Each structure stands twice: as structure tokens, then as C-alpha cells.
Amino acid sequence: QVQLVESGGGLVQAGGSLRLSCAASVRVFSRYTMGWFRQSPGKERELITGISWSSGSTYYTDSVKGRFTISRDNAKNTVYLQMNSLKPEDTAVYYCAASVNAKVVVGGRWDYWGQGTQVTVSS
What we know:
Oligomer: single chain
Shape: globular
Radius of gyration: 13 Å
Order of helices and strands: EEEEEEEEEEE
């Protein structure tokens, strides 16, 4: 029942940057680990990054490490994904998710999901 709403997706050229935002319910935001997933057509949904409620722990999958940065502003109940040096293979629907786990656990449970925002990277 947690509301997560992504925004900031769009079309960008390879090498460019984009910043996604995820606005979360104030009732749970500060207590939940937040993450970003992405899914391309014909592929499984993939966890790409996550951040604990206190921002003390972060996770990045190898394919985005060094290019993407996750952050959160608990006062604004918002988590961000700064994406730099974008590649065509980054094209996907990006989903915000929330977990009751204290930190990101690869393969762990994610309890709530946003509707997704499309990111398209052109060559």
C-alpha cells in the first residue's frame, strides 16, 4: 500500500545524463531501504542500486558502478538516481522499490514498487 512515484525519465543521447526521482509515502520512507531496478524488453527485472534508510549503506551492480549514483533526501521523502555516461544498453523501464530490510540484500525481498519510468538512450 506504499505509494512510490517515479519521474525524470526520457530520451537522452549516449554519453548524456539523466536524474530520476522517486517520491515515497511519508509514512514509511525513512524506515525503508530504497532501490532502483530496471527492465528491458525480453529481460528480467534487474536490481541496479539501493540505499539504506540512513544512507549509510549503498549497493551498485557492476554495470552501473561509477556511472550511477543513488541518494535520498528523507526530509523530502525522495530517492534519486543520477545517471551519467549513459549507454544505449541502459535503455529500460526504471522502477523504484522499497524494502523493509535494513540494507540492500541481493536477491532479497522488495515489498513495494513504483509504476516505472522509461529511459531511452540513443546512439
